Amino acid sequence: MATRRPRIEGFAIVSREGMIAASDGSFPEVLKIPGDQKFYQDSLDRVAAVVNGRHSAEGGPKEAARKRIVLTRRVERIVPDPRNANAVLWNPATAPFEEAWMKLGAGDGTLAVVGGTDVFFLFLSIGYDTFYLSRAPGSVPRGRPVFPGIGPHGATPEEVLQKHGMVLKGRRMLDEAAGVEVEEWVSNR
Ligand SMILES: NC(=O)c1ccc[n+]([C@@H]2O[C@H](COP(=O)([O-])OP(=O)(O)OC[C@H]3O[C@@H](n4cnc5c(N)ncnc54)[C@H](OP(=O)(O)O)[C@@H]3O)[C@@H](O)[C@H]2O)c1
Question: What's the CA-to-centroid distance between 145 and ligand 1, angstroms?
């Protein structure tokens, strides 16, 4: 029997400015970091399920085998994904998260939130237990932010996480050559 709410972990890699993608929605070269890709895929190997917007599945050979909640406004409430027996389609404006999680039937494990912007934002309210924020030194000046409102004249990703009750637990190097570290933010609630 699945619990009402799983452990929830977020995963994002951001540019110097806090962007996760270019303004046209493409994934920029400066965010394609081997050490981060390994950390990301290894992390997804230990979770029970993934949740993502329609354009943000993680890719890779194991993607189709993972249990998944896909956000879309094209359905009412929660329906099985007709193209993927491992997935449900969820419209969060019409049904609560707990119901999507129960319908997915992923047991008691961890749920990984992998974006994009609106999905990362939605789960700030549902509540992350941990958010892994990988920081790349490369620039994506006018891209799509990890959370709404981030940018040169707005907040930093760290400020948004703090505002939502998260505290920085530590950092570790993921890719020396690229100078990419991951920050581990945990809930203080
Ligand atoms: N750097 C990173 O860590 C990272 C992480 C994730 C994604 N990305 C990149 O970001 C780009 C994709 O971004 P995207 O803006 O297209 O985001 P996305 O969240 O993957 O896709 C947006 C679509 O997801 C659905 N959706 C999102 N939020 C929703 C909500 N609250 N309620 C209902 N449906 C919702 C909608 O689908 P419908 O149109 O079907 O309604 C929306 O059109 C890709 O390049 C991807 O690689 C980067």
Answer: 11
Q: What is the mean pLDDT of the chain?
A: 96
From ligand 1's centre to the CA of 25, what distance in Å? 9
Number of domains present in the structure of the chain: 1
The CATH number of residue 48's host domain is 3.40.430.10
Bridge partner list, 51: 69, 113
From ligand 1's centre to the CA of 72, what distance in Å? 9
113 in ligand 1 pocket by Cβ < 6 Å?
no
Low-confidence ranges of the chain (pLDDT < 70): 1-3
For ligand 1, whether the C-beta of 148 sits within 6 Å is no
Contact 122, 92 (CB under 8 A): yes
Inter-residue contact 109 to 48 (CB < 8 Å): yes
d(CA 63, CA 60): 6
With beta carbons less than 8 A apart as the criterion, state whether 51 and 111 touch: yes
Residue span of the structural domain in which 143 resides = 7-59+111-187
Instruction: Convert the pLDDT of each residue in 135-182 to its tens digit.
Output: 999 999 989 999 999 988 899 999 999 999 999 999 999 999 999 999
Residue 93 lies in a domain: no
pLDDT value at position 4?
77
Which atom of ligand 1 lies at the shortest distance from residue 115's CA?
Answer: 6
